[in-house]
Amino acid sequence: MAETLEFNDVYQEVKGSMNDGRLRLSRQGIIFKNSKTGKVDNVQAGELTEGIWRRVALGHGLKLLTKNGHVYKYDGFRESEFEKLSDFFKTHYRLELMEKDLCVKGWNWGTVKFGGQLLSFDIGDQPVFEIPLSNVSQCTTGKNEVTLEFHQNDDAEVSLMEVRFYVPPTQEDGVDPVEAFAQNVLSKADVIQATGDAICIFRELQCLTPRGRYDIRIYPTFLHLHGKTFDYKIPYTTVLRLFLLPHKDQRQMFFVISLDPPIKQGQTRYHFLILLFSKDEDISLTLNMNEEEVEKRFEGRLTKNMSGSLYEMVSRVMKALVNRKITVPGNFQGHSGAQCITCSYKASSGLLYPLERGFIYVHKPPVHIRFDEISFVNFARGTTTTRSFDFEIETKQGTQYTFSSIEREEYGKLFDFVNAKKLNIKNRGLKEGMNPSYDEYADSDEDQHDAYLERMKEEGKIREENANDSSDDSGEETDESFNPGEEEEDVAEEFDSNASASSSSNEGDSDRDEKKRKQLKKAKITKDRKSRKKPVEAKKGKDPNAPKRPMSAYMLWLNASREKIKSDHPGISITDLSKKAGEIWKGMSKEKKEEWDRKAEDARREYEKAMKEYEGGRGESSKRDKSKKKKKVKVKMEKKSTPSRGSSSKSVSRQLSESFKSKEFVSSDESSSGENKGKKKRRRSEDSEEEELASTPPSSEDSASGSDE
């Protein structure tokens, strides 16, 4: 039998990492040399208590347990090497190398066994996974639950950070299985232990993140938060910054502790510990140290006995132990005189504090942005209302923070602060031409572009222009506004009795052409305006003389029963009365309802009879109105076709007959055009003249006088 065995390309598992190297087995023990670091691990043969051979991800592996509880794992063996190793262990170490495979069923319900420095989760007799307890950094308990957190492995790209175990309750008295599990872990884990007494304890402090009330125990090297559900141990080395911020109501104070790495609860990471204090709370504090130790340790920053406001005591003790400055707001003052601005970030409302070297937002979620991280800021109009604005910050890494719903009164103060700190403002080009004050920004809500409002304004202007044009054209718009005969009235036809008048009108051809185009344009606008008004005109008011619609059976019954319901229920309101009546009607028998149905049917018949009489009378009156209108139009057209002075009565009769011919045969002379010009000046007086003409036929003298004018 060989005295030694050597294996190359063997991997040792250390804190989750696989380190390759060379493994040598000899009579004296087992030696592993790390190829990367050169470190040598030596396990004496006399310390070995158990050897296990099992299949692993990298082939086969060897697991060794020692008397002092240490576990060594080596992977990378081939299956054919088992017999050689088994014989070597029997001969030199007097150990049986057992074969034990891992369980691959995928179950998550099993038994936890603690063996030395190892926690093994088994299903039946087969282990599922094993956790070296030396890797545990934190162990917290909950209701029927234990959470293990692990040290971060900087050498591995991905590392396991947390495992939760559900521990079912048992019937055994006096033994809490959750606490027993946690104690087994803590006894072997690399966890910060609270050795000795706390320097001081603050009871029942209100904590916003993580939410709840916690007792804070101050130890020399770490801070212990003890709550009803969770415990957190925070080493002072993880504290980055301290902030003391006054609330906007001037009655409370925020004390903020920035942490890196953050404290963890499940998937939640708390980068900030935020405590809320009332200014009225006072405390007398006595440190659990003698005066010499206090003087030697804190060099006058703390004394054995102190008293004052609670927030002052907490901040003073933390400053002395952490040895970091406390950041407070600078000289910024908002519109209301507060040192912060009310705003919203994501879904929650909070307070934004402009500091001397950055911004901090509390409280959900807390955000701290240093000025040297900021690429630029931007002032944006509010998305929902113009009474507020948004303040956007983009960092050099490309992360954008939007603080919305800031009151516009804060705009001037915030803009001046950002400008004084010489931060890049993205929309400065828009701001240079204006004084960044509240008044300028307050007026800007009227400058918001509203496409619908602009369109309405344009349509209103068009309607106004059309109304002005139509009032200049004629005060009375009838069917003659677009008379085909008027288009040709400036040129007399060759068969017209007054054809000679056309020669004298040639001098103003250009003027008449321009007038003609204007008249055509006006007539078209008038027609369009009338077409738009038609739907409005079609909606007529209700005729007071029309018969009223009949009531339903329910309404007839309600009118008859209203007083009875009121007497049965004194002081009942109108709405309650309606509800009560509905209930009574619903519960009424079919026979009683039939009586009211008959009354409703009789009322309906009477209504139909009255409507027939009403519609018959209205039809006769509308016929009379139409005949009057036709007579009026006929007389007006006769007046338009009257000849000029010197024309015979024969031509008058001919023009009256021709006035109803088609467009090609309608003639017009200079006097008729003059009459149209005069008509524009006398649009109001013609109303009375038309009424007289409608009742009395025009005489030749009247026609002649009309043409003279």
TrEMBL record:
The keyword Transcription regulation applies. One of its GO terms (cellular component) is nucleolus. Residues 458-709 are annotated as: Disordered. It is found in: Nucleus, Nucleolus; Nucleus; Chromosome. Keywords: Acetylation, Chromosome, DNA damage, DNA repair, DNA replication, DNA-binding, Isopeptide bond, Nucleus, Phosphoprotein, Transcription, Transcription regulation, Ubl conjugation. Residues 547-615 bind DNA. Residues 497-507, 643-659 have a biased composition (Low complexity). SMART domains: HMG, Rtt106. Residues 547-615 form the HMG box domain. One of its GO terms (biological process) is DNA repair. Residues 696-709 have a biased composition (Polar residues). Pfam families: HMG_box, PH1_SSRP1-like, POB3_N, Rttp106-like_middle, SSrecog, SSRP1_C. Residues 470-496 have a biased composition (Acidic residues). Gene3D superfamilies: 2.30.29.150, High mobility group box domain (1.10.30.10), Pleckstrin-homology domain (PH domain)/Phosphotyrosine-binding domain (PTB) (2.30.29.30), Structure-specific recognition protein (SSRP1) (2.30.29.220). Signal peptide: none annotated. One of its GO terms (molecular function) is nucleosome binding. InterPro entries: HMG_box_dom (IPR009071), HMG_box_dom_sf (IPR036910), PH-like_dom_sf (IPR011993), RTT106/SPT16-like_middle_dom (IPR013719), RTT106/SSRP1_HistChap/FACT (IPR050454), SSRP1-like_PH1 (IPR048993), SSRP1/POB3 (IPR000969), SSRP1/POB3_N (IPR035417). Residues 515-533, 625-634 have a biased composition (Basic residues). It comes from the Eukaryota. Component of the FACT complex, a general chromatin factor that acts to reorganize nucleosomes. The FACT complex is involved in multiple processes that require DNA as a template such as mRNA elongation, DNA replication and DNA repair. During transcription elongation the FACT complex acts as a histone chaperone that both destabilizes and restores nucleosomal structure. Belongs to the SSRP1 family. Interacts with MYOG (via C-terminal region). Component of the FACT complex, a stable heterodimer of SSRP1 and SUPT16H. Also a component of a CK2-SPT16-SSRP1 complex which forms following UV irradiation, composed of SSRP1, SUPT16H, CSNK2A1, CSNK2A2 and CSNK2B. Binds to histone H3-H4 tetramers, but not to intact nucleosomes. Identified in a centromere complex containing histones H2A, H2B and H4, and at least CENPA, CENPB, CENPC, CENPT, CENPN, HJURP, SUPT16H, SSRP1 and RSF1. Interacts with isoform gamma of TP63. Interacts with FYTTD1/UIF. Interacts with SRF. Interacts with NEK9. This is FACT complex subunit SSRP1. It comes from Chrysochloris asiatica (Cape golden mole). The gene is SSRP1.
